[in-house]
Amino acid sequence: MDAAKASLMAMRDAILKLSEAAAQGDFSVREDAGRFQHSFREMVVALNRLMAEAGDGLSDIGRVVSAIATG
C-alpha cells in the first residue's frame, strides 16, 4: 500500500511540475520517465511528448508571425 501511495504521489508531483511549467510558457521542462514503471512511465512519456509538441508548435507560430511582420 505504501509503494502504491508513493507512486501516485510521484505521478501527482510530475503532473504538477509539467503543468506549472506549461502555464508559465516553459515547454522545455521534462520529467524523468525512468523514475516510473508501467503505465505511470507511459503517462510521463506522453506528457513529455505533449510538452515537446506544444513547444515546437509555438516556435512555428512565432516564426510565421515574425515572417509576416517583416513582410
Short description:
The protein contains 2 helices and no strands.
Observed structural traits:
elongated; mainly alpha; 71 residues
Rounded to the nearest angstrom, the radius of gyration is 16 Å
Estimate percent helicity.
Answer: over 70%
Provide the structure class: mainly alpha
Give the low-confidence spans.
Answer: none
Kindly state the mean pLDDT as a whole number?
Answer: 94
The helix-strand sequence is HH
Count, helices: 2
The share of residues in extended strands comes to under 5%
Main β-sheet, in a few words?
none
Distance between the termini: 61 Å
User: What gross morphology would you assign?
Assistant: elongated
Number of DSSP strands? 0
Explain the layout of strands and helices:
Elements: H1 2-23, H2 38-70
Explained architecture:
The protein has 71 residues and is mainly alpha-helical. It is 77% helix and 0% strand. The longest helix is centred in the C-terminal third of the chain and has 33 residues. It is elongated and about 60 Å long. The relative contact order is 0.13. The model has no long low-confidence stretch (mean pLDDT 94).
